[in-house]
Predict the structure.
Amino acid sequence: MKRLCSMILMLAALSCLAACGKGSQTGQTDADSGAASRKEESVMNRSGQSKGNTDILVAYFSCTGTTKPLAEYAAEYLNADLYEIKAETPYTSEDLDYNASGSRANKEQDDSSARPAISGKVEDMDKYHTVVLAYPIWWGQAPRIISTFLESYDFKGKTIVPFCTSHSSGIGSSDKNLHSLVDGGTEWKDGKRFAAGTSEKEITEWLSGLGIEPFTAEEKEGETSRRSFDFEKKTVKLNSGYEMPLNGIGTYSLEDDTCVNSVSEALKRGVRLIDTAYMYHNEAEVGEAVRNSGIPREEIFVTTKLYPNQFSEPEKAIDEALNKLDIEYIDMMLLHHPGTDDVKAYKAMEQAVEDGKIRSIGLSNWYVEELEEFLPQVSITPALVQNEIHPYYQENEVIPYIQDLGIVVQGWYPLGGRGHTAELLGDETISAIAKAHGKSSAQVILRWNLQKGVVVIPGSSNPDHIQENTELYDFELTDEEMEKINALDRNEKHDWY
Ligand code: NAP
């Protein structure tokens, strides 16, 4: 029976090992690359420099060069160190001959205790919190040298992200079978198989979908976890690579000329972020104000949203938004709130990103549970989540959860929303802090959001208010003041979603 299984596995692995053999014959294998270089420290970035400033390691074993470029894609995207697992005794073409039952690779794969020695080592494994582990499939399993690698270090507290390359077979149980080789306390992500020639985009989308993102542990904490708000430029860089302003104008309930005028006033006053939605029935007016502003298109960032009643025909809805806005492309499109077919709608937005219709995509009114369920079903990690956030409804659990995923948080109803602003702006604590800084209550609330790493889009049709809402960068709230406002949380939602 074992033999039969082996034969089946052998067939699955056949093309990979065949490729190994071919590489050996042409002298292109890793095994032939020279003993001297093998002895060198091999944690390098792509340009061959030891980076030493990252906490993600991409470790790979590649005998023919199939796995290597994909590992390099991962390292490049993650800004990670790259480590090549090289055998102390290089594999020759005879070693890799799958037809010879006694060949070295066949014998090793047949012997679960085989541990081929590795040349060199990862110098400072302690500094990595995540290890992406890449290997070819040999006989349906990871080559035994991967076992050697895993047993050589302490992976406690680390996350291991395995992927394999193979021409025909899938990852099978090869990733799960590695789990027992490391002590407990290690988080394993589900592995994935990639074919030779897989694109960089596919690799990066997979990593991003798993929440493996290109920033360091330090960046994940404190100030910089907020995807680095740049208070000089007043922008934040999204995980899509685009920059978005930190403060904007919301256009909910602004209709017809009121909307055109409000957005035009905001643009005149330096506001470059505009939030609209299909449901606000004013995308055309927002587009008109943008086109008439004379400001270069790429300097303005427009967000719109698909409403759940559009999710069943999302392609049509996206084109409708593009037509109404008439501003060449949409900077950010969100799903307005969860609903039937939301995954389908999101996937259509992913395609629209691919087609150049939309630059960044995200979600609105998604909280921890909703995100946990939704994210594994989509490929592109949202760049933004827009939720209700104000001093009486602070979402203190939700905000860091979203930020730790590398997603920017934006707050709607920053001033409490129409009908609620008087109480919030008149709040004693906020008014006292405002007085101390010579600022308005609205400015203090907006600044409090910014210092929590939350982008603000206050709505207004009053030019004085619009102006006031831009003047948020010439003062700073102290830790104590931040704490005082944090203490005002009442978990009091001002809208239903
Ligand atoms: P908001 O920004 O909390 O409050 C708007 C109200 O505040 C208006 O009545 C406005 O009146 C007043 N205001 C603005 N600036 C002020 C200032 N400096 N001093 C005193 N009053 C000021 O509520 P919102 O506009 O409804 O919400 C903000 C944006 O979030 C919306 O416009 C929309 O784009 C977005 N949003 C998204 C969702 C979602 O589900 N994704 C839901 C709701 C809202 P004046 O016009 O007189 O200035």
Observations:
- Residues 229-486 form a domain with the TIM Barrel fold (CATH 3.20.20.100).
